[in-house]
Amino acid sequence: MLLRIPGVYPPQDDTRLLADALAEQPFDARTRVLDICTGTGALALRVAELGAGTVTAIAISRRAVLTARLNARIRGCTIRVLQGNLTAPVRGEHFDLVISNPPYVPYVPAEDDRIPGIGMARAWDAGTDGRALLDRICAQAPDVLAPGGTLLLAQSALSGVGKTQVMLEEQGLQVDVVARREIPFGPVLTGRRRMLAARGIITAGQRNEEIVVIRGRQHA
Ligand SMILES: C[S@@+](CC[C@H](N)C(=O)[O-])C[C@H]1O[C@@H](n2cnc3c(N)ncnc32)[C@H](O)[C@@H]1O
């Protein structure tokens, strides 16, 4: 069972795709895991239950922090849940596995790159190209990865998989796509179809998007 305080992102297809990719990862009692953008804590709980040694989860929203802490207590998992912006709360620390399913939906209106400071949309809106958080994660994650560590990052193909790959490679990571799933547009994208088609991000009549999990491996 997973509790969810109103306003916190409910686990969805992207959460499940990343959860499935996690099952392929080796875990033992020494594995230190960081979940950036944790929401309900679903993914952090999954790695804890898969046998990770320590799990740290970060959320910007107080409601998400509370939700993740409550879920950890209900499930009997020990997870450190911190409030803050991406990797800021763990600067100077290093992790063997860093996972994230961040906001990645192109924002409407598209005239500027603002991202919402409050409210439910903060869970998905991510600037004009959907990369406001992805770019920051690509820039910050290598700093918190231990030598030999792995990043698993979920995103939509609408937000530039190639750009994520290039950014991570430029940081010295070995990059590949480890999972893909085609899913129908949810209510947010359905409501933005005209705008996204007008901007050339989707084709007219498109009703599905591909979500992917990108893996970046730090040299040992
Ligand atoms: C797409 S949801 C994913 C939630 C959860 N990881 C899952 O897969 O179900 C993205 C989450 O990122 C959080 N978030 C947005 N901006 C953030 C930031 N700058 N730092 C940390 N978390 C952030 C949102 O509050 C939201 O819970």
From TrEMBL:
<comment type="similarity">
    <text>Belongs to the eukaryotic/archaeal PrmC-related family.</text>
</comment>
<dbReference type="InterPro" id="IPR029063">
    <property type="entry name" value="SAM-dependent_MTases_sf"/>
</dbReference>
<feature type="domain" description="Methyltransferase small">
    <location>
        <begin position="15"/>
        <end position="104"/>
    </location>
</feature>
<dbReference type="GO" id="GO:0003676">
    <property type="term" value="F:nucleic acid binding"/>
</dbReference>
<dbReference type="GO" id="GO:0008757">
    <property type="term" value="F:S-adenosylmethionine-dependent methyltransferase activity"/>
</dbReference>
<dbReference type="InterPro" id="IPR052190">
    <property type="entry name" value="Euk-Arch_PrmC-MTase"/>
</dbReference>
<dbReference type="GO" id="GO:0032259">
    <property type="term" value="P:methylation"/>
</dbReference>
<dbReference type="InterPro" id="IPR004557">
    <property type="entry name" value="PrmC-related"/>
</dbReference>
<dbReference type="GO" id="GO:0008170">
    <property type="term" value="F:N-methyltransferase activity"/>
</dbReference>
<dbReference type="GO" id="GO:0008276">
    <property type="term" value="F:protein methyltransferase activity"/>
</dbReference>
<dbReference type="InterPro" id="IPR002052">
    <property type="entry name" value="DNA_methylase_N6_adenine_CS"/>
</dbReference>
<dbReference type="Pfam" id="PF05175">
    <property type="entry name" value="MTS"/>
</dbReference>
<keyword id="KW-0808">Transferase</keyword>
<keyword id="KW-0949">S-adenosyl-L-methionine</keyword>
<dbReference type="InterPro" id="IPR007848">
    <property type="entry name" value="Small_mtfrase_dom"/>
</dbReference>
<keyword id="KW-0489">Methyltransferase</keyword>
<dbReference type="GO" id="GO:0035657">
    <property type="term" value="C:eRF1 methyltransferase complex"/>
</dbReference>
<protein>
    <submittedName>
        <fullName>Release factor glutamine methyltransferase</fullName>
    </submittedName>
</protein>
